Amino acid sequence: MTTSALEPRAGRRCHGPLNSLHATHYFSPDLGRELGALGITRPRAVNFAVRAAALGPVGAGVVTATFFNYKHELVARHVPAVWSIAAPADVLAARLRAVDATLRRLLGEEAVASAEMAEAAQLALRAAEACGRGARPLYSAHADLPVPDEPHLAYWHAATLLREHRGDGHLAVLTSAGLDGLEAMVTHTSTGRGMAPKWVLATRGWTEDDWNAAADRLRERGLLDGDGELTERGVGLREDVEQETDRLDLAPYEHLGAEGVARLTALASTFARLAAAADAFPADLIGKR
To answer: What whole-number distance in Å separates Cα of residue 265 and Cα of residue 116?
Structure first.
């Protein structure tokens, strides 16, 4: 389709609220309830199961590789054992039920049934048409799943596709920049826009010693100062990472076009604000401390 030129960060700005909407279910009691009904009750097992289920009954190595910033020992504690509790297909069905309940609760029935939601789903699905499968395992696995019929679930599905597409590319860029999973988390947290250390340690399997060791490695590279703040070089590296991620993630937003991206960003932002106002996320999730 013919499009006007996108602003340099238009895709990144659109991705932000799309990603926020996708992520609501990870913090939702509805997810724990649905997975608990299948017999998966441990929070980390729930997380690994719902995000990896599209890949099939994979082992710990695949999950560690594709999730990138979790400690392998934590992953191996739950995977592949979780597949002996519930099959991936059952997990995916439970996940969609949880998403349905979560979005109805956070956004309200009026927003879920609105013309704006149907429009957002159409725009996001159109953007996802241009996502590439090559070297993007989590995106490609989710792209094999059927698009749900209901607009709010179709919108969530499309947001998931766009989120995982960008995420797969982002991991390639982080690896090229010489950052391992925990170092990437430490540098992102140091920007003030990443997950707070307490949440990283509580959910990713890392210890304070692991965190401090990663920070020391970053200091040796001149990326972090003695107070744990990014140096000028560290700030530059993070921006280079985001710009290269933008470049690898450009195709879906170019396909949608500048006007479509602007409209999707506006709609996605409205839904993300509704979810945030309904306490979709912990108040202390983001921050340097």
So the answer is: 12
Contacts of 43 (CB under 8 A, 6+ apart): 32, 203
Distance in angstroms (rounded) separating the CA atoms of residues 93 and 96: 5
Angstrom distance (rounded) from CA 175 to CA 75: 20
Contact 276, 25 (CB under 8 A): no
Tokens representing residue 266 in the block: 């506006």
Which two three-digit tokens encode residue 16?
Answer: 């932000």
- 219-229 pLDDT, tens digit each: 999 999 999 99
Q: Report helix, strand or coil for 9.
A: coil
- pTM for this model (two decimals): 0.97
Are 224 and 230 in contact, with CB atoms under 8 Å apart? yes
pLDDT of residue 4: 65
Average confidence (pLDDT) over 265-279: 98
Q: What is the DSSP letter of 128?
A: H
